[in-house]
Write a structure and sequence with these properties.
7 helices
Length: about 160
């Protein structure tokens, strides 16, 4: 169910043209990250990883853009790893964890773009993307904090 929710959020946010406001390739709100943070907090790192991998693969298939798989998976794995470490440390709020995850996701996407294109040119986009990750990460962190507090692991518990 969480994989389906993450996929639906990913597809829905793809319909929101943020690049009209800020012309940055790959800029998104990161709504699917809500599911990743929830899974990390309420399930396990392994389950969060399975949900992330399935969402990235299915998202690439549904969107018809298999080349996007490298970008979403690289960013998602880097974000998941960092968020899991920060949550395990226990010193960070979900706002901080989510902001760090957004920054890590953007960094992963830039690294993937550099690998695919064979050039360091995509690094030019990293500073503005990292700046945007403050806002997008804070937004998803706030919503994630509400979800973790109010939505039980299993419906009806």
């Amino acid at each position: 169910m969480l994989t389906a929710l993450a996929l639906a959020l990913s597809v829905a946010e793809g319909l929101v043209p943020l690049t009209v406001i800020l012309p940055l390739p790959g800029l998104r709100l990161g709504l699917a990250n809500l599911v990743t943070v929830y899974a990390l907090c309420r399930l396990s790192g392994r389950e969060a990883l399975l949900i992330l991998a399935a969402r990235c693969l299915l998202g690439a298939l549904v969107g018809g853009r298999l080349t996007a798989l490298a970008f979403s998976l690289t960013g998602g794995l880097l974000a998941l790893g960092l968020m899991a470490l920060l949550l395990r440390a226990g010193r960070f709020s979900l706002f901080g964890v989510s902001i760090a995850g957004a920054a890590a996701h953007n960094t992963g996407q830039i690294l993937a773009a550099m690998a695919v294109l064979g050039t360091r040119a995509p690094l030019v986009y990293l500073p503005p993307l990292l700046l945007c990750s403050l806002a997008t990460g804070a937004l998803t962190g706030g919503v994630a904090a509400l979800l973790v507090r109010r939505v039980p692991v299993r419906a009806g518990t």
